[in-house]
Design brief:
Blueprint (H helix, E strand, L loop, with lengths): L3 H21 L3 E4 L3 E8 L11 H21 L5 H24 L2 E9 L2 E2 L5 H18 L8 E3 L6 E3 H6 L2
Antiparallel strand pairs: 1-2, 2-3, 3-4, 5-6
């Protein structure tokens, strides 16, 4: 549930927002110089990189969906955080895969920037991938209680759990 619910939420929000903005057909300036709704069709990767190559991007998305699902299912049920974050990535991959498979390109519409310098236009699926991946990276590098880290004693070359190394100094 922790894997597929966030994925479903991202896919649904992504497809609804793309449909609504694209069929409205208008661009909007929401916050002058910072946030706009700017309609763009993107035949490339996330944030408009590597234009073209529809078959490659569809194949890569299918592989990503299978791999993310496999990894998410292998995580213990108690590991809800990582399952949710993988679910966000999964939803983003599926959301953009739907567009590529049906239309050959992805609809992007969110544009943010400062003083006329804008980030490439993106969508809800891209947000899911970015937030999920960012949270997984933070999880991997952020120290936590109860998680045993290994330290290597420079003098002896021996490794020991961080807690034990501190008591043996």
């Amino acid at each position: 549930m922790a894997l597929f619910l966030p994925a479903a939420v991202i896919v649904i929000l992504d497809q609804i927002t793309k449909y609504l903005f694209w069929h409205n057909g208008r661009n909007y300036e929401i916050i002058d110089g910072f946030f706009n709704i700017t309609l763009v069709k993107n035949a490339g990767a996330a944030f408009g990189m590597s234009q073209g190559g529809r078959a490659f991007f569809i194949a890569a998305s299918v592989v990503a969906v299978v791999l993310i699902t496999y990894l998410g299912m292998k995580l213990p049920r108690e590991d809800r955080g990582r399952r949710v974050w993988l679910g966000l990535i999964l939803g983003g991959a599926v959301g953009n895969l739907v567009d590529r498979a049906l239309f050959g390109e992805v609809v992007d519409f969110v544009q943010i920037g400062v003083s006329g310098h804008y980030w490439p236009v993106f969508n809800v699926a891209d947000m899911g991938v970015t937030v999920g991946a960012s949270m997984l990276i933070l999880y991997a590098i952020w120290p936590r209680r109860g998680r045993h880290s290994m330290v290597v004693d420079a003098a002896t070359g021996r490794s020991a759990p961080a807690d034990d190394a501190a008591t043996h100094s």
